[in-house]
Design a protein that fits this description.
The protein has 97 residues and is mainly beta. The chain has one domain. It has a four-stranded antiparallel β-sheet, with no helix packed on it. Strands 3, 4, 5 and 6 form a four-stranded antiparallel β-sheet that branches. The protein is globular.
């Protein structure tokens, strides 16, 4: 099943790799942890049950207008879990299946 590999980066030094997409059993999403201090990839149902804030996969949004996404792209800003500023960017790194 397909998915994306994204790098979440902030100017404060926060960096995390997330990998949303579809597995055989579930849909994986990007979400802030319960305390809001980190980003994780988690099954959408678990995120919903835990009441986590989910970030929609921006790569999927970009593909609504063009199938081609440059690896030089970036999306954001989002709130950074470390510094809490709206300075987090999500950048494409690759695909997984």
């Amino acid at each position: 099943m397909p998915g994306h590999i994204l790098s979440a980066k902030c100017t404060c030094g926060f960096e995390r790799e997330v990998a949303p997409g579809a597995t055989v059993n579930a849909l994986r999403v990007i979400a802030y942890t319960a305390d809001g201090r980190d980003l994780v990839t988690i099954e959408s149902e678990k995120a919903k049950t835990a009441g986590l804030t989910v970030i929609e996969d921006p790569w999927l949004k970009a593909q609504e207008t063009s199938l081609y996404v440059s690896l030089d792209s970036s999306w954001g800003p989002y709130q950074c879990p470390r510094c809490t500023q709206d300075s987090l960017q999500l950048c494409p790194k690759g695909l997984w299946d």
